[in-house]
Amino acid sequence: MLCKRLTTKDNPFDPFDDVDRWRAFDEQKGYCTDALLARICIMTNEATEEEAELEYARAIDDVMKYCDYGIYKVVEKEMRV
């Protein structure tokens, strides 16, 4: 499955493979990208991993459509869920 992650254009770290440094950079800059997505995602405890990933991708699309402000970019990676 092709998975999406939201990051900022200035973040040099990979949100798939270097999550801890990616998150530290993101929070140090005050972007709080994870918190933004958490407010937009509609998750349930019953969702499968695939359903959760699809909802996460929908939330990313919403951010890019309505809240981008020119700072965000989407990165994609083929992953097994």
Topology:
Layout: E1 2-8, H1 19-28, H2 33-40, H3 49-66, E2 72-78
Antiparallel strand pairs: 1-2
Q: What does the model show?
A:
The protein is an alpha+beta fold and 81 residues long. The chain has one domain. Helix content is 44%, strand content 17%. A two-stranded antiparallel ribbon has the order 1-2.
Overall number of structural domains: 1
What pattern of helices and strands is seen along the backbone? EHHHE
Largest sheet: 2 strands, antiparallel
Side-by-side strand order of the widest sheet: 1-2
- Whole-angstrom Rg: 12 Å
DSSP summary: helix tally: 3
Question: Which terms summarize this structure?
Answer:
two-stranded antiparallel ribbon, alpha+beta, 3 helices, 81 residues
Quick overview of this protein structure:
The chain has three helices and two strands; from the N terminus they run βαααβ. With about 80 residues, the chain is of the alpha+beta class.
